[in-house]
């Protein structure tokens, strides 16, 4: 048996819609695999009741198929599905790494990015790599349309606040504008470049400023009850920047390490003020998938 762990991730980071991602030090999914004639799947943990065990419908089934690696697969969910924290990507990345080891396929983590993205296609219809790339490679990642991914290590404190509201990725993609003005384009490129420089320097001020996004985030924020209040509360508590995590509903804040507790409390209280329960993960930029 081989067991692997892969982290939750936060895609987009505001200015990097469908391009940027970051691995979180926790929470994470754990996946164990044993050789078998046909793939079977068992799921336990956070949100397990909402995750299909049919290999045609679970992301790990598509990963086993893509690697020609049938297995009994046990998933222990640490990342709740439909959280905006890359839940399906964490399972896909952990399964890809575990099956690669079990069947001695010899693929690198970079080779496994398009394999794990095949799993993502099962749930969203598109092989997005902006969650599986950080889940596999760790750190801050940039994915390009040619399937290539670049990763940079960063040392950065983060808070991810997960409210008890549901935002479907389909709805969140439905509100993305079809086009952008040149003014918004220039602002977005400037913010994305600032964020990238900030990640390379592990600088929370630069990264926080680079999260700003005039195009996608304002449209999506309307789908998250309490978002504006939570954002303001996090900034007042010392966050250097706040944005929607992935397709939502989680909200991501960047801060100095010493401000994590205060920012986490402020965000949970911000959601409470809007009548929404929430939990906050005091986390950081973390490593990619590992065999345990
Ligand atoms: N192994 C799996 N783990 C989690 N969800 C899975 C898995 N296999 C299939 N799914 C389905 O995928 C959907 C959730 O995946 P999705 O990646 O959208 O979650 P997310 O955490 O919100 O990610 P994102 O950060 O991309 O918004 C649910 O419909 C769930 O049933
Ligand atoms: N980049 C994707 C991540 C969710 O799969 C989005 O924001 O829709």
UniProtKB/TrEMBL annotation:
Principal location class: cytoplasm
A cellular component annotation (GO) from this entry: cytoplasm
EC number, UniProt record: 2.7.1.39
Associated pathway: Amino-acid biosynthesis; L-threonine biosynthesis; L-threonine from L-aspartate: step 4/5
Binding-site residues, ATP: 80-90
Domain GHMP kinase N-terminal span(s) in chain numbering: 60-139
GO MF, one example: homoserine kinase activity
HAMAP family, per database record: Homoser_kinase
Family assignment from sequence similarity: Belongs to the GHMP kinase family. Homoserine kinase subfamily.
Protein name: Homoserine kinase
Annotated organism of origin: Halobaculum halobium
């Amino acid at each position: 048996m081989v067991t692997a762990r892969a982290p939750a991730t936060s895609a987009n980071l505001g200015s990097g819609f469908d391009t940027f991602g970051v691995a979180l030090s926790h929470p994470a999914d754990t996946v164990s695999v044993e050789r078998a004639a046909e793939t079977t799947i068992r799921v336990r943990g956070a949100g397990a009741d909402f995750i299909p065990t049919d290999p045609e419908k679970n992301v790990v089934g598509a990963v086993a198929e893509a690697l020609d690696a049938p297995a009994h697969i046990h998933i222990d969910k640490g990342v709740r599905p439909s959280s905006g924290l890359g839940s399906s990507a964490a399972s896909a990345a952990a399964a890809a790494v575990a099956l690669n080891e079990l069947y001695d396929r010899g693929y690198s983590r970079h080779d496994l990015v398009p394999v794990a993205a095949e799993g993502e296609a099962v749930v969203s219809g598109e092989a997005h790599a902006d969650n599986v790339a950080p889940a596999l490679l760790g750190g801050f990642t940039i994915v390009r349309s040619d399937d290539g991914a670049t990763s940079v290590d960063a040392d950065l404190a983060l808070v991810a606040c997960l409210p008890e509201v549901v935002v479907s990725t389909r709805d969140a993609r439905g509100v993305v504008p079809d086009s952008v003005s040149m003014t918004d384009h220039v602002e977005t490129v400037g913010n994305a470049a600032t964020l990238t420089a900030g990640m390379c320097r592990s600088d929370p001020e630069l990264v926080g400023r680079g999260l700003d996004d005039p195009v996608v985030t304002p449209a999506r924020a309307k789908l998250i009850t309490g978002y504006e209040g939570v954002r303001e509360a996090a900034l007042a508590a010392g966050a250097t920047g706040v944005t929607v995590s992935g397709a939502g509903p989680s909200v991501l804040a960047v801060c100095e390490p010493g401000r994590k507790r205060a920012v986490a409390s402020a965000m949970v209280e911000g959601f409470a003020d809007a009548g929404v329960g929430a939990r906050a993960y005091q986390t950081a930029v973390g490593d990619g998938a590992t065999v345990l």
